[in-house]
Design brief:
The structure is a homodimer. By secondary structure, chain A is α/β, with parallel strands linked by helices. The first copy, chain A, folds into two domains: 258 residues, 3-Layer(aba) Sandwich (Aminopeptidase); 156 residues, 3-Layer(bba) Sandwich (Glucose Oxidase, domain 1), CATH 3.50.30.30. Chain A contains 13 helices and 16 strands. In chain A, strands 1-10-12-11-13-16-14-15 form an eight-stranded mixed beta sheet, with helices on both faces. Chain A is elongated. The two termini of chain A are 29 Å apart.
Chain lengths: 455, 455
């Protein structure tokens, strides 16, 4: 064959292939913005079922509901995967006061996940404000008998709100343990929230290897509450703080990951996971965190099925249980995957809220990263521009197949921490179109990896 | 000089210049996310002043407030520009019912801007549902004596919500005129809203060259109301619709554009405008439309002043009056600019809401478009990716300098029509960080054009 002919054929093949992918993405986005059921599913999950903390009746209702909805899609397999999960219950709504001489000012707090309760009478002590775990170590005995108040705010100047969260969340996660080691009697942590408001934001914390007897109660305070407490402390460093927590840790209980599959036509043994986590915190409905990710993952299956797309590889929707407080679902999934000698080539998680999608955060090698970058033009009409290396998702972190591309959907992050783990993480905080655009973006990305494989 | 030396110097100069711009953008974004006053200004405009329809006391308070705030920035000039504007007043809250045999169902409506009132008893007539102005023309006498119900929804499948608005808004703007020409007694228009909810969305409409005696009352109905009415019409095509509007058009009144300037150090005669519009609709506070754009434009002046940036060209903040209902402020601005033989090289408007910025929509020639594209990398760290040709802004449309680049800030558009011209366009719909990122993006773009000029 002449070189020019070969070149002509290559160009034709390229244009044809481009055009096929362009058309498929067009179909995916159109279906998503007009027909996908994500928003209706999220309405049910949020408003009919509500909060789904692991081990709760809500979580079990979520399992039954999503299994049933996946079954109605007519995909090849739908099943549950057993997993033992922690069960921690908040109990009575918390109360807290700043006690400044004779004035008593109520402030909004909530126990952090895994915290022990205070005594029934509550805890009353002086407060010491700090801005880092390091500072507590340095203070040493100076914190003894006191409530340590971690008040380092999320940095407003980062463009990505998750960066600010990452730079701040150690106070919440490890703060109680370190304060307990130095003899503190409790901790309160400024909520991980970039906004000043009255919502306390819960979240996981860990006492690590402390003996149980040394556990101290730990709670989050709203950002407005933190500002007020800090101001009052400047006026009177000996003021007292009162808090009462009634939370309790129970034995682990049986729960489930929910799984639905479309079997691959060419490589049924190669698995591409798409998922979110079904559990939420207990203060609201977990619409953003992570009802949105769950219904988007289910939406990917619906999109492929309804567009009659037959994937080459097996597409597996996984709704993980217990991301928020132990990550047992993700760990169990990997354990069983190893046991069954499964071959995962790709995993995509959506766990950053149902906001306008902006791109993907990727854990992969250079070859696959370059491949993704060759698709950038395909995504431009959908305003998807950001393909970067970075953390993909907590539930897919345990997956250890030798060759695997991991991705996290990157939605716009500015509003996420207004709702994260707080009582306003409700259905009305999610915009239908933004949610649907996320599902379309996920389906498009999976379609391209399914077509072209991983390197 | 040797060619290689020249090349080396050019590369050095390029790298130096890149790095200078990178640093400036970094400073701009950091200042915006930590110190700019936009959000506090918007709080005042929304919650202390409220609705600012042109010719209203709210609009005049808005003029006084923003003038004063610009003065506190210590910029070179702050002044008002007189402009006569239309004054239309809604009067009593509208009432409307679907009258189906003996049942009477209240539905949420609001008069469109410029509509005449119904009689004091209200208007009662049969309804005919249509989906376009063309259809009304074809129906002709069949609409006589009836209320024409325009019910073509915004298309959900477009990625840019403004495209759907553009494809739909003719029903609102020209619908009443055409229906009146065919003998209809009133019109109701499905609200320009991509969401199903209970908010009617007002907006400008025009009777065009119709004799005043032929004007008919026209109102918007909420999307849920439109769905219900359409359903009921399918069951009973002879049902009656009742509506009562008390609105009234008054004589034009004196108002103002608000202007603040930083005089250029090298080319004081070359003017770069940055603006939004100070008037709003009357149903809410106009926080998104266009309080956000106003405070962002003011924010640009604050950013430059506080960062001690001395622009080469004159930066002129213009808060236009009466964009919503006649565009008199923009027209007057251009008229005076011509009269004073001013030379505008650049104009940027923010009038698409205070959501996360995504890029700019540009009216310019190829040379300047290429220049903008050479800055793409500078904006990547701020997740600003979309530089496209398209409509820049209504208030800057009249500007006719022979060489001018016009730009419109492009925020994420998915949520905009949830609030546009409706009673929920309030302060709490605007996120502080998204607003501030918009101001930073505008300041950065102006900085680059100020540094490198237009071609």
């Amino acid at each position: 064959m002449k070189k020019t002919t070969l070149f002509f054929l290559m160009v034709t093949a390229f244009l044809h292939s481009q055009s096929k992918d362009e058309l498929m993405l067009k179909d995916i986005y159109k279906f998503s913005l007009t027909k996908v059921q994500c928003y209706a599913w999220l309405d049910d999950l949020s408003n009919k079922i509500g909060a789904r903390p692991s081990g709760s009746p809500g979580a079990e209702k979520g399992v039954a509901y999503t299994k049933k909805q996946l079954e109605t899609l007519g995909i090849d397999k739908v099943y549950l995967q057993e997993v033992m999960v922690p069960k921690w219950v908040r109990g009575e709504k918390e109360t807290a006061y700043i006690l400044d001489n004779k004035t008593k000012i109520a402030v909004p707090i909530c126990a952090l996940g895994g915290s022990v309760a205070t005594s029934q009478k509550g805890l009353n002590a002086e407060v010491i404000e700090v801005h880092s775990i390091e500072e507590v170590k340095q203070l040493g005995v100076a914190v003894k008998g006191k409530i340590v108040f971690y008040n380092r705010p999320m940095e407003p100047e980062n463009i990505e709100a998750f960066k600010s969260y990452g730079n701040c969340v150690d106070q919440r996660f490890y703060g109680a343990k370190e304060a307990a080691l130095q003899g503190a009697v409790g901790t309160i942590v400024r909520s991980m929230n970039l906004r000043l408001d009255d919502f306390p934001h819960t979240g996981a914390q860990s006492y690590g290897d402390l003996p149980k007897a040394n556990y101290i109660p730990t709670a989050a305070i709203s950002t407005n509450g933190a500002e007020l407490l800090s101001k009052k402390l400047k006026e009177n460093s000996h003021l007292q703080f009162f808090m009462k927590l009634s939370c309790k840790q129970y034995d682990d209980v049986l729960s489930y990951n929910v799984i639905g599959e479309i079997t691959g036509t060419e490589h049924p043994e190669k698995i591409m996971v798409v998922g979110g986590h079904l559990d939420s915190w207990d203060l609201a409905d977990g619409a953003q965190d992570d009802g949105a990710g769950c219904v988007q993952a289910m939406g990917v299956a619906e999109i492929f099925k309804k567009l009659n797309y037959k994937p080459k590889n097996t597409i597996r929707v996984v709704l993980f249980m217990n991301e928020e407080f132990g990550g047992k679902g993700g760990k169990k999934y990997e354990e069983l995957s190893k046991l069954n000698q499964e071959n995962h080539i790709f995993a995509l998680e959506s766990d950053s809220g149902g906001f306008s999608p902006r791109g993907f955060s990727l854990e992969c090698d250079e070859a696959n990263f370059n491949k993704v970058n060759s698709w950038v033009k395909l995504f431009e009409p959908y305003l998807i521009h950001s393909f970067v290396k970075g953390h993909a998702g907590s539930d897919i972190t345990p997956l250890t197949s030798s060759k695997i591309v991991k991705a996290g959907l990157k939605p716009d992050s500015q509003r996420y921490f207004d709702y994260h783990h707080a009582a306003n993480d409700k259905f009305d905080s999610v915009n239908k179109r933004e949610l649907e655009l996320g599902a379309a973006t996920m389906a498009s990305f999976i379609y391209l990896f399914d077509q072209y494989g991983i390197d």
